[in-house]
Design a protein that fits this description.
There is one protein chain. By secondary structure, this protein is of the alpha+beta class. It has 4 domains: 102 residues, Histidine-containing Protein, Chain: A (2-Layer Sandwich); 83 residues, Helix Hairpins; 61 residues, SH3 type barrels; 105 residues, Alpha-Beta Plaits (2-Layer Sandwich), CATH 3.30.70. The protein has 15 helices and 12 strands. The strands form 3 sheets. A 5-stranded antiparallel β-sheet has the order 8-7-6-5-9. Strands 1-4-3-2 form a 4-stranded mixed β-sheet. β3, α4 and β4 form a beta-alpha-beta unit. α6 packs antiparallel against α8, α7 crosses α8 and α12 packs across α13. The longest helix is centred in the middle third of the chain and has 26 residues. The relative contact order is 0.05.
């Protein structure tokens, strides 16, 4: 559907071009058609003499006639001078020649005003002859400048070929920038720079250095407009450049980006591609990847899993926790350092919720498989040991008020105090130990420096 819009734009431009002559004056239209016009052209301001002789007018007429005889296309111009007013008449081949004749007249000393009565020759035969002569002269100039033109084209092509050859020297570029993406960017920039230098050399060869500023200015404006038009593409490209420098993940790392999880497949100049556990490709724009929170599950080989277990409220929890920890330690793939841990998470309406934690090595085991085997093993061990894992149960207790002689507060106060086996509740420093080890092995600068004052 792009063609109708372009067609309307072309139609509007054509109408503007067609109506442009109508915006001019009647004098312009008459000049365009070659009709004689009485146009007064004032020379540059100068003082008009109070006394004037016919000899001065004669000298002006003779001087202009001599000039017109020497200029091609102005030989038939007739000059009349009265009191410093010059009247030009005759036939000239083009409006440009008429303007040239007027300019000569205004430059002569003593001229007060120039009356333009020149006619533009519209004879078809003569116009064709003049056009053919102009075309032949242009072709002759082209052949005369052909060696320069060929040399300029060869310069541009040579610069393009050298830039292309250098941009493909990956081994040489990788020595400058070990990052492949940065090396490719340097190669492209070098290629573009050499092409620009070739164009500048070609313009210098043609002695057209004045066009360099114009071309650079136009290129800057075009680049600005293009930057606004493809802002998202430029943002993704810059983000990919920064991501390739920081390298937050590598190929096949299992990461979570902006709520999407999968193995890192590739990073292009526009997007990062993940391979989801379902086997689907997830394409995320690099600008979003750069701004998002990235969770890299593969950067550290050890990974912790967790699951909850509900047991009966009547059970002694310490043996249950001990059985669960021994079972977790025997599961294949579960690490002994850090050792598994089972804690009381919450008291439910009809059960006690235990949370089981264990560590596994992702380099030698599968996270979902180890977690699944741990759940199955704990379930089997509880079934064999008679540990009740109840469904939601609601107990109804009927109390006889007449037989109640002791209040609930008295019962709690009179309850005997028994020695209870205390479980180790010391702080778990395993994560902190790994964080310190990670900081010692990391090459990146850590902005969370202990020397910096904490935020209040």
């Amino acid at each position: 559907m792009g063609w109708p819009n372009d067609g309307w734009r072309l139609l509007v431009v054509a109408l503007l071009v067609a109506l442009w002559p109508a915006t001019g004056t009647a004098q312009d239209a008459a000049s365009l058609l070659g009709a004689p016009t009485r146009e007064a052209v004032e020379p540059p301001p100068r003082v008009i003499e109070t006394e004037r002789s016919a000899a001065v007018d004669s000298r002006i007429r003779e001087r202009l006639a001599a000039i017109y005889r020497e200029v091609a296309g102005l030989e038939s111009v007739t000059v009349e001078v009265r009191e410093g007013v010059v009247e030009l008449s005759g036939v000239v081949p083009s409006p440009a020649r008429a303007q040239r004749a007027i300019r000569f007249a205004t430059q002569v000393e003593g001229v007060v005003e120039v009356e333009n009565s020149l006619e533009v020759d519209r004879n078809l035969e003569r116009r064709l002859r003049v056009g053919w002569q102009a075309l032949a002269a242009a072709v002759e100039r082209l052949f005369a400048n052909l060696p320069l033109l060929l040399a300029a084209v060869c310069l541009v092509l040579l610069a393009w070929w050298i830039g292309r050859w250098l941009s493909r020297r990956h081994n040489w570029l990788v020595r400058i920038a070990p990052n492949p993406f940065i090396a490719m960017f340097i190669g492209q920039a070098l290629h573009l720079l050499l092409v620009v230098l070739g164009l500048v050399a070609a313009l210098v060869l043609f002695d057209a250095t004045a066009l360099i500023g114009t071309i650079l200015g136009a290129a800057g404006i075009a680049g600005l407009a293009l930057g606004f038009a493809i802002r998202d593409t430029v943002e993704n490209y810059i983000a990919s450049l920064l991501l390739s420098i920081r390298n937050p993940f590598e190929v096949n790392d299992y990461v979570a980006i902006d709520g999407f999880e999968g193995n890192a497949l590739r990073m292009t100049s526009r997007a990062t591609v993940l391979l989801s556990p379902d086997g689907n490709h997830i394409r995320i724009p690099n600008a979003k990847v750069f701004k998002a929170v990235i969770v890299n599950y593969t950067r550290r080989p050890e990974r912790r899993f967790r699951f909850d277990i509900g047991v009966d409220t009547e059970l002694d929890l310490l043996p249950v926790q001990s059985l669960a920890m021994r079972t977790l330690s025997s599961v294949p793939g579960v690490l002994s350092d850090p050792e598994p841990m089972v804690v009381v998470e919450a008291l439910g309406d009809s059960n006690v919720v235990l949370s089981a934690y264990g560590w596994m090595d992702q380099r030698s085991a599968s996270y979902p498989k180890v977690r699944s085997e741990a759940i199955r093993s704990v379930k089997q061990a509880f079934d064999e040991a008679g540990v009740v894992m109840p469904e939601p149960i609601y107990k109804l207790r009927v109390i006889d008020d007449a037989g109640a002689t002791e209040s609930a507060g008295d019962r709690i106060g009179n309850a005997p105090v028994h020695d209870r086996r205390m479980q180790d509740v010391s702080a778990d420093r395993s994560i902190e130990v790994r964080v310190r080890a990670e900081q010692g092995a990391a090459d990146e600068e850590n902005l969370l420096s202990p020397q910096v004052s904490r935020e209040s």
